[in-house]
Structure formats: C-alpha cells, structure tokens
Amino acid sequence: MPQRLTAGLLAVLLAAAFPAVAPATETNDAETLNRARAAAKDLGERLKGELVAAIKSGGPVTALQVCNTVAGDLAIQTSKQHGLTVGRTALRVRNPKNAPDAYEHKVLEEFLEKASSGADLAKLEHIEVVSENGEKTFRYMKAIPMAAEPCLACHGTELKPEVKAEISRLYPEDQATGFKPDELRGAFTISGKLD
C-alpha cells in the first residue's frame, strides 16, 4: 500500500518541480493542488471565451457589459464544478467586489517583486495552507499577466472614448486601466477547506 507524502516531502517536491511556486505547508494533497490549477485554468478560459465572443459581436463596450454581468456567474459555476472557492483579484481592481483580502494583497505584492527580478509572470503561482477561523484552508493564487488581446481594449493605456464612458458608467471606482502587456494584471485566487 503506497504511503501518503509527508508535508515536508511534498514541499520539497513542489519546490523542485515548480521553482516559482511557494511550497505548500501542512498539506500532502496533490489532488487539491491539481484541482486548484484546473479551476484557475477553467475560469480563465471561460471568461476569455465570453469576452472574445462579445468583442467580435459588438466590440469592447459589449465586452464590458458581458464582464459586468457574466464574470461573477462564471466564478460561481467554476467554484461548484471544482468544489473550491474560485475568483479573481488584483491590486488595482475594476469591480470592488474583487478587492484582495490581506493574504491576497501580500501574494500579489510578492508576484510584483518576483516579476521585477525577472520571473515569468505566466509561471508564477503561490500555494499555502493557512488557518482561517480555526480551520486549515488551502490557498492558491496564479498570476494573470496583462495580455495584449483582448485585454488592452479595456485595461490598456489608450482607451476609446466610448470604452472610457462605459467603464465610468459600470465601474465608477475603476482602478484597472493604464496597463501595458506583460504587466501583472491580477491573479486567480482559489481556496478550499482541508479535512
């Protein structure tokens, strides 16, 4: 009968296999890690698919409307599918509901620091087990680099007047413009309780 990995051994293996990944502490559940990665990937692909379709059908203004009405539902659907809490956050958010908690803020700052030292944002992720309200919770974050397409149309430095107006209408407290390709746009954030 195979033995389960100890937390220390898993941390060493993760660090060796994924040098940009912070080692998990107190978890030996590789399945949870794989589920977290799959959930982040699924949410990213679903959201991108919706936004690309909206841009093709009506341009960036339509994409903003879709993002405003669909992104939250996609996160809920992805959470249910994977049995985890799935979302997005950033240091500069468009939707205040996506503002980072203290933990997420710290990890996002670490991503910025690693990127400024030459790390590839597309490969940055952070895995950790934390204690929340007396329960062990698995926290995973995957950096989202700013992509040229389709993201610059609504998050870039040169927005069309109609896009600026729609952002102001939908998100009066918007902080998520002025990005350049390959900057840290934000992160997928995944969490789940551990047994």
TrEMBL record:
Tll0287-like domain span: 52-191
Give the signal peptide as a residue range, or say none if absent.
1-24
Ordered alphabetically, the record's keywords are: Signal
Instruction: Answer yes or no on keyword Signal.
Output: yes
The protein depicted here goes by the name Cytochrome C
- Superkingdom of the organism of origin: Bacteria
Q: Which InterPro entries match?
A: Tll0287-like_dom
Quick check: keyword Signal in the entry? Answer: yes
The record lists the organism as: Candidatus Filomicrobium marinum
